[in-house]
Amino acid sequence: MAYLTFDLGSSSVKAALVSEEGELLALARRPVVLVHGADGSHLTDAAAVSAAAREAGRAAAALPARAGADASVRAIAVSGNGPTLVAVGPDGLPLHPALSWLDRRASAEAGEISDLSEIPVDPTFYLPKALRLWRGSEDLRRKLKWFFSLPEYFLFGLCGNALTYLPHPGYLPYIWDDSLIDALDMPRGIFPPFAKPGELAGSLTTEAARALGLRPGIPVVVGFPDFLASIVGAGAMKVGIACDRSGTSEALNICADRPFPGRELLSLPHAVDGLWNVSGGVSTAGAALDWISSILGLAPPAGDNGSDLVGRAALSPPGSRGLVFLPYLAGERAPLWDASRRGAFVGLGLGHGREDLARAVCESIAFGLRLAADKARDERFPLRLARPSGSAASRDFLCALKADALGIPFELPEIADCELVGDACACAAALGDAASIAEASEKLVRITRRIEPDPASSSALDEAYGSFKSALAALGPVDDRMNGTVRRAPGAGG
Predict the structure, then answer these.
(1) Least C-beta-crowded within 10 Å: which of 109, 201, 286, 483?
(2) How far is CA 254 from CA 13, 242, 281, 308, 388, in A?
């Protein structure tokens, strides 16, 4: 018996069968496309993403049977990237390409909402993008039935019920609430009602069951935003344990007993009541690795043939022979909150080769995480260890590099795609297999090994990190001038 779980990412969608004991029985993935426009748009086709997810789900559900094993699906849950916004008509079809979490064009709307709410609202959040679409097209206003996040849209296709994931009331400023909707003169009905992770959303429809090769009526469970699914699926459920969630973006999510006192880091309620998720990172982490892989003619980090980006980077010593890279290829959220930031190589010389460029980009992601870690440490937040999730979690070189840069051990979960395990935890809680999501996480998460920091490498990376921070400070005015930006206060959305 198993749970069928989905994670809808920016570059691929994944589906997995996870046993009731936390064993990965099957995994399938399908690629999806994120289109980056010259106007600053970052768009994806929600219908195509849903079709890819159905294909992955059908493949995963069929794998055990092909091997002669019984892995009957007991429940289904979905996580996914956010805030990616989908506008949907009465027929259930998208009216517009979905606005990715990278899309920052709603800066004016974010400023207006920030003034109304007196809370800093970033252009990447749901409501600014919804407002921009709503005001920008009379045709869309006439046809619009609902706004969804991407995983909510796929879940709607599974069970036919429209809802909005709300892990905790503290997330309302980052999604939407009635008072803001009214103040913006938008109808409340286009925003589906809220539901909490681990609740039953409905049952698998006959049509969706046919597409997945399953029986109708299987319980469909409310999942999480992807970062919370990762936290639960990595077992980062106690104070001082962080989940390093890697993918197109990457963030260090620290389990804390209180919110961060300033605006530099995001503070959101944790999946465990009374705890907090304090986070910051790099918005274009995996995207930067893919970019430099393409530039250098190397396979991206997902490859394992020894000739990929990571294999090349390992040939350069810690510190990349004095070369520094700034990984901010599309602006930045926490801890910089600066839409004008752009990438740069600093210290580039004739003696640098492809291995140095590759390593500098890898190190830059670790340094971006350390910026967030240092902010937390400055405020006396404990950070004892990290558990990686996602595309970089299966690469020892990247995990060891980050352990060295941050100065903490990295513990590696057995299932690297922790979002899929987090959704399994939601299924277990919904079905009563565990008393809570926290208990489900304790039961299902398996840690295989631990990577300790190497003192010599940590020392070299400390020096390189100093150069990284100097370059970041020096190039800020250059980025502002080139982008015509007037700098706003941290957390105000760039």
Answers:
(1) 483
(2) 25, 4, 11, 30, 12
